[in-house]
Each structure stands twice: as C-alpha cells, then as structure tokens.
Description:
five-stranded antiparallel sheet; single chain; alpha+beta; 3 helices; Peptide Deformylase; about 180 residues
Amino acid sequence: MTLRPILIHPDPRLKKVCEPVPEVNDEIRKLADDMLATMYDAPGIGLAGPQVGVMKRIFVMDCVKDKEAAPEPMVLINPEISWTSEETNVYEEGCLSIPDQYAEVTRPSEVRMKWLGLDGQSHEEQFDALWATCAQHEFDHLNGKLFIDYLGPMKRKMITRKMEKLKRERARAGATKDPIL
Length: 181
C-alpha cells in the first residue's frame, strides 16, 4: 500500500465530475488499498478518488468511531444514490482536502446507495447517522462538489482564502528544505 498525496482546495480537479470505473481489476483494487491507507493515515473517515488525483467514481469510508472496535472499511465503486429520506440531519463536516475547516451542513439523514464492490458484484445498503453523511459527502466529491459549496458565499470565500494561504505556506516550506544528497 502506498500513501497518496491529498489534493488541497482550491484545485481544479476537485471541481470535476468523475468518470465511471470501467471494470473492477487489480489496478482498482490497488487504488482502493492505497486510498484506505491514505484515509486512515490522514486520519479521516472517507476519501474519494479525485482527492488523490484519480478522476474515477470510487470512494472509501469507515465511520467506526470507537478506536477499540474493529475497522469497517468500505469501498464503493460507481456509487448511485437510489433513495434519500425527507428527514434531514445537521452535521459539522470537515474534509481532508480542506484541512482544519469545519461547518454545519444539512443533508438527508438516511440514504440508500447502490455500488460495485471490489468483488465486481453489485451491492446496496441503506446508511444512517454519520455513515449517511459521509457517504453523501464522498459521493459529492465524485460530482465535483465540496462541503463548502453548501455554505454561504462569504464563509466559502473565507475558507478558500485560508486554503490558498495554507498551500502557499506549504510550497514555501517545501522550497526551503535542503536537498537530499
């Protein structure tokens, strides 16, 4: 497994609609392993293909909060939302592509999704609570949408400016490192 760099907003790739995965093969299985390793290392509870520069409809998630419990990693390939509840839930969301920024987002409290698994078979499950929020958040990434797109223009602009500053600081820090001989 390889840890992959996570793109930071604003990056044009984060605003693009992703292409379907044509087939579940060893390349996709390796990508899924890398994405799970990257997500756990970050640490996060979800990660979508475009966040690691892969413009394919794939995301991973694991919303088990109890550190003592066994992980429950999920890989969703070409996911589709087949149903959402009318009832909504407000959750303070963050994003690995928008580090250290959080905001309340209202989404359906339950969602049913269909997807291909790493076994190449079709799966369907209904998610609620944090799992529903995470699944919708990651699904949005596949359609070029970020959680800050649910916010007002002033808050969105403020967060974007903070991310631009962070990227400049990281670029400067990288440029000042001594070369490895």
